[in-house]
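Supplementary Methods. Inverse-folding protocol.

Structures were first reduced to a discrete structure-token string of length 294. This string, shown here, constituted the complete conditioning input.
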């Protein structure tokens, strides 16, 4: 029942471009939105590239100071860290000026998004968005992490065709093991749990019950979740803690949690996010009381 990623407009060309760049050893950077969908999309890309031998720096914007979407400073920061290609996830479809600035810096830019698209698209190297006017895939219900996972599947197939794994004597990327991340982003972005999303979440929850992801393990522990996780677990226990990082403390905490392989670091970040969530609850309660008083 898993759909063919190549039905997404522009996917074949984008996957071929990214796969060839990986094979050529080009440097990547990742820009992700500050919410759960952005954090999970960022984590998917960082983990996939890491498996291929590429450590990609990532940038999550500050919710209050930088706001939604990419900005020139972020793209310049990633370039200064060595990036030649920037993968933008969960935003970018309408960022005409900023993407033009990034291209002027000499960056190739690939946008992976699911927000509404205008007739004219920005001058990115590639844009994958099931809500593009010319997209006939029928996959418009995907969250950005779902779109990102589709790219990973398509790039994996291209790398296989290039004999990349064989030549480098490494196993294929363990994409099914990343479905727990996809499920988390899908549920928390509140897209319909039907069709492909239902498949991704069901499979992701099965993976999460025996996850090897240090960050998800730590988050389940601090959230006091026992037994098999459910959509409720993702939407009301894990998701709010990841979101609280960008609302109270540091926007990149969620992405850092989901990309680390160090159990100790994961535990520290998870507890920090838990504290952020308690602060967020207190702020919300105070605002509610103030509103009622008004």
């Amino acid at each position: 029942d898993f759909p063919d990623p190549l039905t997404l407009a522009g996917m074949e060309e984008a996957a071929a471009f990214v796969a060839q760049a990986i094979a050529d050893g080009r440097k990547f950077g990742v820009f992700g939105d500050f919410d759960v969908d952005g954090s999970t999309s960022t984590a998917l890309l960082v983990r996939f590239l890491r498996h291929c031998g590429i450590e990609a720096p990532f940038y999550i914007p500050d919710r209050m100071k930088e706001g939604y979407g990419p900005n020139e400073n972020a793209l310049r920061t990633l370039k200064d860290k060595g990036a030649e290609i920037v993968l933008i996830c969960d935003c970018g479809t309408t960022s005409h000026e900023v993407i033009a600035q990034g291209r002027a810096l000499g960056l190739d830019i690939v946008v992976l998004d699911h927000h509404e698209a205008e007739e004219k698209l920005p001058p990115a190297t590639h844009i994958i968005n099931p809500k593009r006017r010319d997209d006939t895939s029928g996959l418009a219900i995907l969250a950005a992490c779902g779109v990102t996972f589709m790219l990973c599947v398509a790039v994996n197939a291209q790398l296989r065709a290039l004999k990349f794994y064989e030549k480098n004597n490494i196993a294929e990327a363990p994409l099914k093991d990343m479905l727990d991340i996809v499920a988390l982003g899908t549920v928390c972005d509140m897209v319909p749990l039907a069709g492909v999303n239902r498949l991704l979440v069901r499979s992701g929850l099965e993976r999460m019950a025996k996850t090897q992801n240090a960050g998800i393990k730590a988050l389940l522990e601090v959230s006091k979740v026992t037994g098999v996780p459910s959509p409720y677990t993702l939407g009301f226990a894990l998701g709010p803690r990841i979101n609280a990082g960008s609302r109270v403390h540091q926007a990149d905490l969620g992405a850092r949690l989901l990309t680390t392989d160090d159990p100790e670091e994961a535990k520290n970040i998870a507890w920090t996010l838990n504290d952020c969530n308690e602060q967020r609850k207190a702020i919300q309660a105070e605002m509610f009381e103030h509103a009622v008083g008004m």
